[in-house]
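re: ur msg from earlier - yeah i can do the glutathione complex, just paste it... oh wait u already did. ok heres what im feeding in:
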Amino acid sequence: MKIHDFPLAPNPRKVRTYLGEKGLAMDFVLVNLLAGEHKSAAFLEKNPYGNVPVLEMDDGSFLSESLAIIEYLEERHPEPSMWGDTAEQRARARRTERIADLGVLGRVGRYVHAHKSPLPGVPQRPQVAELMLEELVRPLEILEAEIGDHPFLAGNRPTVGDCTLFAASTFAGFSQLDLFEGKPRLQRWCAAFSERPSTKVEFSLPS
Ligand SMILES: N[C@@H](CCC(=O)N[C@@H](CS)C(=O)NCC(=O)O)C(=O)O
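and the outut:
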């Protein structure tokens, strides 16, 4: 198996952080988004949506969508679970992850691209950027309230939602957006989580 990705982008970063937490080794193939490689005919054959990450299975087939990739790897490697040990823990961790993904990461992505995209040829769209900032308020308030004094978003162990929110926060930095301003619990969580080896990415763009 290998993953086609671009590690500076948030959905690939989510999966890489997940792999690190899980302790799974993986080969990576760089898809240089800055050079538009994700829209090449060769890559569109792997993923007609033209986005990353994409998992290449051992049989040569391809699977896109970061959460589908994570769920597949969870099924292949169930221990330790990155959702939880009981049905209740897993349900709550999945809920938290949906809030982190749909509520935060997706909107951060749209914000950064609408504000000032690192990708070539993406037009600035100030109204979209403004709307995303508005729509980010509530999910972040919910996560701030619900983390309480726990070390991780869904309690006392890392789950997929931690990987998702961490990836969102690093991508927000491309637009100098401090997601956790005025949110001391999420600031504390982010400072601690960013010390974990799973968050380190070794990457350099090809010259
Ligand atoms: N829902 C997809 C989103 C994938 C996605 O949008 N990936 C971004 C990078 S984070 C991308 O490839 N963007 C380039 C494009 O869509 O043109 C997932 O979870 O994998």
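cool cool. Residues 9-11, 33, 38, 50-53, 65-67, 109 surround glutathione (CB under 6 Å). ping me if u need the other ligands too
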